[in-house]
Design brief:
alpha+beta, Aminopeptidase, 2 domains, two-stranded antiparallel ribbon, 11 helices
C-alpha cells in the first residue's frame, strides 16, 4: 500500500504522534520511554513558549493501516539564518526502516518549508536548538540521559538517502573519575581571585535567578553555530517543569565584581529513575519517582547548561569560572552518590569547552549529528 501522510490536528492524533517511537523502539534495551505528560506539554502550542516565536507542523505516516512514521517541520523566527539561504528545520523523526516512508515524510516536511520561503532544511531539532538537537549516530548501546535523544541505527542512512549531508556534529562527554589534571586541582585549592564569588542558586528568588541565567546563557551562546536566543518564558517554563528534580546544591553561579558572570546546572538523570515506568506516572508512577529521587542514590546526572559572559572570556577570572563551577557541582553531587556526569551537548568545534572536559578526564561516548539539505524554493509562498 502507498504511504499516507496525515497532518496532526487533533488531540488523538498528537497522542499517536507521541506514542509512535515507544512501539518502534520497544525492542531496544537502551530505549527510555519519555514521560507522556512532559511530551504533551512540550508539543502543545498552548503550553510551550517556543510556539510564541515559531511556526510548526507535525505529521504521521500510515501504511498497511498502521502508523509507521512521524516528522515535524518548524521555523524559529528568533534563530539566526542567512537571508540569502533562509533555513527551516525538521525534527521528531522516527519511522520504520522503510525507504518509502522516509521519502514521504521528508517530501512533506520539505514542501511545507519550501512553501514558506525556506531554501535550506536542517535537523533534527526537537523542536529548537535549545531543546533536543541532532540524531544519535554513535553510542547506541547506552541509554540517553535526561532531555537527550536516542534513535535507531538505520535512521542516519535513511536521512542521507533523502539527499542530506552532515552540517555539524555535537558530542556528549561522560566523566566517571571527576578528577581534573594535577595543575587544575592545585589551582582550585587556592583562594578565588579578588572580586570573584561562587554562590549557590537562590531558590527563594527563583524567578530572578531564571532571568539571570537566561541573560548569561544568551550572551555566552550568541555566537555559537545555530544559536537562537532562549526567551525568559522558555527558561522559566523549563525551570518550572524541572523544579521537582532540581537540586539547589547542583546549581551554581559565579559573580565577578558584583555581576552574575557565569553559571552551571547539573540535573539528576530523570531517565534513570523512570526507565521502568513506560512513560506513565499513573497510577503509582508519581510515588515511585518521588521516592527514588528522595531516597535512592542519584547515580547519573547531566550538565545541560553552562555559560560565561563573553566580556569575561579574556579575564583570568572568566577563564577560571568553568573549573570553579564544575568543581562545585562535583563536590556536592559526589556526596549524594553520583557516579557519572554527562556534559552535553558540545559542538565539535567548541575547542575551549572540549579542552576543559578532557582536562576533567571526560570522554566522548555519544555523537549526535545535524543534517542539512538545500531545497529549491517554489514560486508561491505561504505567509
Amino acid at each position: 500500500m502507498a504511504v499516507e501522510i496525515i497532518p496532526v490536528e487533533s488531540k488523538a492524533e498528537l497522542e499517536r504522534f507521541i506514542r509512535l517511537p515507544m512501539r518502534l523502539s520497544a525492542a531496544d534495551p537502551a530505549w527510555v520511554a519519555p514521560l507522556m505528560f512532559e511530551r504533551r506539554e512540550a508539543l502543545s502550542k498552548k503550553v510551550n513558549p517556543f510556539f510564541q516565536h515559531a511556526d510548526a507542523q507535525f505529521w504521521l505516516a500510515r501504511k498497511d493501516d498502521r502508523d509507521v512514521g512521524r516528522i515535524s517541520a518548524q521555523i524559529d523566527h528568533l534563530a539566526k539564518s542567512d537571508p540569502a539561504a533562509p533555513a527551516g528545520y525538521f525534527g521528531m523523526i522516527a519511522a520504520e526502516d522503510d525507504a518509502e516512508v522516509f521519502t514521504a515524510l521528508f517530501r512533506t516536511a520539505e514542501d511545507w518549508l519550501r512553501a514558506r520561503g525556506r531554501t535550506q532544511a536542517l535537523g533534527p531539532f526537537n523542536l529548537s536548538v535549545n531543546e533536543e538537537v541532532g540524531l544519535l549516530i554513535d553510542g547506541f548501546e547506552t541509554p540517553p540521559m535526561v532531555m537527550m535523544g536516542h534513535d535507531q541505527p538505520f535512521t542516519a542512512r535513511r536521512i542521507e538517502e533523502q539527499g542530506y549531508a552532515k552540517a555539524k556534529d555535537m558530542y556528549a562527554y561522560i566523566s566517571e573519575a571527576f578528577l581534573f589534571s594535577d595543575r587544575v586541582e592545585a589551582r582550585l585549592k587556592r583562594p578565588l581571585p579578588a572580586g570573584m564569588v561562587l554562590r549557590q542558586v537562590r531558590m527563594d528568588k527563583f524567578d530572578e535567578e531564571i532571568r539571570i541565567l537566561s541573560d548569561i546563557l544568551n550572551d555566552a551562546w550568541s555566537e555559537n553555530w545555530g544559536a537562537a536566543p532562549i526567551t525568559e518564558a522558555e527558561t522559566k517554563h523549563l525551570g518550572e517543569s524541572l523544579k521537582l528534580i532540581l537540586i539547589p546544591k547542583w546549581i551554581w553561579f559565579v559573580e565577578i565584581d558584583g555581576e552574575p558572570a557565569a553559571f552551571v546546572v547539573l540535573l539528576p538523570d530523570l531517565n534513570d529513575a523512570t526507565r521502568d515506568l513506560k512513560g506513565s506516572l499513573l497510577p503509582f508512577g508519581w510515588a515511585k519517582l518521588i521516592w527514588r529521587l528522595k531516597f535512592q542514590p542519584i547515580r547519573r546526572g547531566r550538565v545541560p547548561l553552562m555559560g560565561v559572559r563573553k566580556r569575561y572570556a579574556r579575564d583570568r577570572r572568566g577563564t577560571l569560572a568553568p573549573f570553579v563551577l564544575i568543581d562545585a557541582i562535583r563536590r556536592e553531587s559526589v556526596k549524594q552518590g553520583l557516579q557519572a556526569a554527562e556534559y552535553s551537548w558540545i559542538l565539535e568545534d567548541n575547542k575551549p569547552m572540549r579542552h576543559i572536559l578532557e582536562g576533567l578526564n571526560a570522554r566522548i561516548y555519544k555523537t549526535y549529528r545535524v543534517f542539512a539539505k538545500q531545497i529549491a524554493p517554489t514560486g508561491d509562498t505561504v505567509t
